[in-house]
Amino acid sequence: MTLKELEVFLSLSETQNVLKTSKKLSVTQSAVSQTLKSLENKLGEKLFDRVGKKLVLNERGRKFKKMTAEPFNNLMSAKYNFLKDKVSGILNIQASKTIGTYVLPNIIFDYLCDYPNVKIKKEVVNSATIINNIKKGETDIGFIETECKDPDIIKEKIKEDELIVVSKTPYPEVYIDELKNKKWILREEGSGTRDVFFEHIKDIADIDVFMEFNEFEEVKAILMHYSDTITCVSKEAVRNEIETKKLHHIKIKNIDFKRNFYLIYNKNKIKTELFNNFIEYVLEKISYKKVHIHR
Asked: How far is CA 114 from the centre of its chain?
């Protein structure tokens, strides 16, 4: 049975008249009669007795009304509230490590405070995984730290980031190949940080990765314990350690490790009010120039 059939049935049970119900629901009398007939055919029995010009619920009709009135009203209430509040729902987002750990948390917290009817499921994974999931339609919005040229994905620049080379041991400004024999600890393959680092040094130095890491706290603990270890990470990830001189920024001659943070989504994604509202909120909080959202 359909909501329309239940709506006609419940209305008829109150008005007891096809004409009154047709006016109430803004449909023709013929539509009311056909809808009732369809419902009774599906149930296999009549729900009304005809008493003069009135349609009066019979014993089975009264039972059916008792069983359906409350669920129908609940469904209609849900439909009304759903349509009334467009900025509500569940948003699935994925963010790469730096953005997900140091940029988005406070923004998401503020957004949920401002829009209590929204739920956000956030997962932190590497950029390659995010791009793949966006392409497959498994994630609504992605935040990545690497380039993406897939024709099925819309990419918007949201922020500029600086990568820095870091160690416990302070160094004067050096060329990158002077550090090639150090124990380099870098992010896992597929991460935006690693991709950007190797893209910048590919024609300059051949560096072996001594160890890979996934969590920033892990690599910071190793760096502060072993003086011959070195890494390249976002400045955002080690800002406190640099300020307190627990770690030191090693300036590299002739290389500027700049990169962009991007927001991505599938080109076929339906832009709901929630989708657009969240993107605009993030852009405002990051204070980057407003970008055009493909609607």
From this structure: 17
pLDDT tens by residue, 46-103: 999 999 889 999 999 999 999 999 999 898 888 767 765 778 899 999 999 889 998 8
Q: Which CATH number fits domain 3-84: 1.10.10.10, 3.90.550.10, 1.10.468.10, 3.40.50.150?
A: 1.10.10.10
CA 283 – CA 158 distance, rounded (Å): 7
The neighbouring-strand residues paired with 50 are: 55
Angle (CA) 34 39 40, round 5°: 95
Q: Which of 82, 78, 105, 75 is nearest to 273 (CA)?
A: 82
CA 229, chain centre distance (Å): 36
Amino acid (one-letter) located at 127? S
Does residue 172 contact residue 190 with C-beta atoms inside 8 Å?
A: no
Nearest-angstrom CA–CA distance, 293 and 288: 14
Class of domain 89-159+260-286: alpha beta
Q: 101-145, pLDDT tens digit by residue?
A: 988 999 999 999 989 989 999 999 999 999 999 999 999 999 998
Fold adopted by 162-258: D-Maltodextrin-Binding Protein; domain 2 (3.40.190)
Contact between residue 73 and residue 102 where contact means Cβ atoms under 8 Å apart: no
